Amino acid sequence: MQSNVPRQLVYGTMVYVRQTIVADASCALSKAVCIAARYSAVRRQFGSHNGGPETQVIDYKTQQSRLFPLLASAYAFRFVGEWLKWLYTDVTQRLQANDFSTLPEAHACTAGLKSLTTSATADGIEECRKLCGGHGYLCTSGLPELFAVYVPACTYEGDNIVLLLQVARFLMKTVSQLGSGKHPVGTIAYMKRVEHLMQCRCNVQRAEDWLKPSAVLEAFEARATRMFIAKLQQDIPGKGVKEQLDALCYVYALFLLHKHQGDFLSTGCITPKQASLANDQLRSLYSKIRPNAIALVDSFNYTDHFLGSILGCYDGNVYPKLYEAAWKDPLNESVVPNGYHEYIKPVLKQQIRTARL
């Protein structure tokens, strides 16, 4: 049975569902980051001088290098989720006027961002669990359940690998139209600057130069363009708030640049010296974020009940609450666990007798 409804309207429904999933990714990741950040501020380990208190775990550079990019990602996903809501509203209004021109781009954006954000969030929740050490395994930490509930998002409403292939098809179609003189618009407008991006060289000279949005954005645009061409050739508010959000923005961008440094270097987008400067600037940004890290996760405004985690409780009173929760476990209702005298004690006695022989 055939329907008279235009096939493009089906994509309109997908756009709505996937933009919702992207917004949910920010919520899930920010909960995990909130737990990990608060616990990292409460937990102290090593570094004691002259009998003073030990160092807060969050002050260790290795902890910051793992935690703060996730904090930046949570904010980035929140903002891109809001942008997708605007995109969906715009597409809906156009569809009502029988204008389908922006639907392919909206479909590609939501498909790609659904794949990106859900994969990054699933990995990020697991990383937050690791950042909490052994306590991260506890059900009372809230992290195991959060991970188990969230992971299916990588599959429902489109398997992430399949969605990335759909984005690739959209990009291929866009590139094929460049030769006909059709100029791309919106999120793919940079493709009309292919010749410039293939030849440009990064002009970063100092670590601080990586705080210029134009320098970071052009590096990412150049990487996308050059890797795409290479594949074709192979195959044929307040000031303080703004400052902190700017810092998170640059942490997110420079962390991705660091993570995919090989791509930037192999395509000649940046030089090894510039890559080193980017790493220097990234470490500097971690130090800038540290004083406000807890305030940044507190701004998510999650109640302890909603967070469902002892490790991430707002008052930081972690250890008494862990002790209290342990006493509520059925295994601790008696001093000697059930079954010890019947099963374990005879085995231990037998082992002692054997050892004496």
Automatic annotation (TrEMBL):
InterPro entries, alphabetized: ACOX_C_alpha1 (IPR055060), Acyl-CoA_oxidase (IPR012258), Acyl-CoA_oxidase_C (IPR002655), AcylCo_DH-like_C (IPR036250)
A Gene Ontology molecular function term of the record: fatty acid binding
GO BP, one annotated term: long-chain fatty acid metabolic process
Pfam short name (any one): ACOX_C_alpha1
Keyword list, A-Z: FAD, Fatty acid metabolism, Flavoprotein, Lipid metabolism, Oxidoreductase, Peroxisome
Coiled-coil ranges (or none): none
This protein's record includes keyword Metal-binding: no
Cleavable signal peptide: none
Membrane spanning residue stretches: none
Cofactor requirement: FAD
Entry's localization field: Peroxisome
Cellular component terms (Gene Ontology): peroxisome
Acyl-CoA oxidase C-terminal domain sequence ranges: 223-349
Domain Acyl-CoA oxidase C-alpha1, first and last residues per copy: 11-172
Family in the record: Belongs to the acyl-CoA oxidase family.
Entry-linked PANTHER family: ELECTRON TRANSPORT OXIDOREDUCTASE, PEROXISOMAL ACYL-COENZYME A OXIDASE 1
The protein's name: Acyl-CoA oxidase 1
Annotated organism of origin: Actinidia rufa
